[in-house]
Amino acid sequence: MQVSITVNGEQRTDEVEPRLLLAHYLREVCGLKATNIGCDTTSCGACTVVVDGLSVKSCTVLAVQAAGAQVTTLEGLAGADGELHPVQKAFREEHGLQCGFCTPGMVMASVGLLAANPDPTDREVREGLEGNLCRCTGYHNIVRAVRSAAQAGPAAGRVPGAQEVQA
Length: 167
Fold this sequence. Notes:
By secondary structure, the protein is of the alpha+beta class. The protein has two domains: about 1-75, Beta-grasp domain (Ubiquitin-like (UB roll), Roll), CATH 3.10.20; about 85-155, [2Fe-2S]-binding domain (DNA polymerase, domain 1, Orthogonal Bundle). It has helices spanning about 20-30, 85-95, 105-115, 120-130, 140-150, and strands at about 1-5, 10-15, 50, 55, 70. A five-stranded mixed β-sheet has the order 2-1-5-3-4, sandwiched between helices. Strand 1 and strand 2 form a beta hairpin. Helix 2 (about 85-95) packs across helix 5 (about 140-150). It starts with a strand and ends in a 17-residue tail after the last helix. The mean pLDDT is about 95.
């Protein structure tokens, strides 16, 4: 089956199996390895990406369901000039990562969280990232990173090239 998806600002048309998960499409067909696969059951959040402005776990979406959508992975979050997105900067500055396995999904979930709630409390950050697991950090630095990214204003909840989502 043929599918057309805009991935990180690039329009792609690929032949895929109808049962191929978006996570596997991004990794195997597009070669974007930051989208990690940890569980294939929506439990860990390592595969979180932004689809049409909303963070989603890509192990729960078929590639064919994303046809016509704008998908952004961690690789597409930084600006064309290489400048880090406010959430990426905050994760680096606040030490919101350790081993790095959960980081791509955690960053993408944070972008989605900040798009919906530009100034979350600590509790709202913890609740908003509840479906993303980290085995290393204890979450304190991740919460601090998201709150720090919120200081950047609306830019923290935007992805390059994405259209604004109407609530």
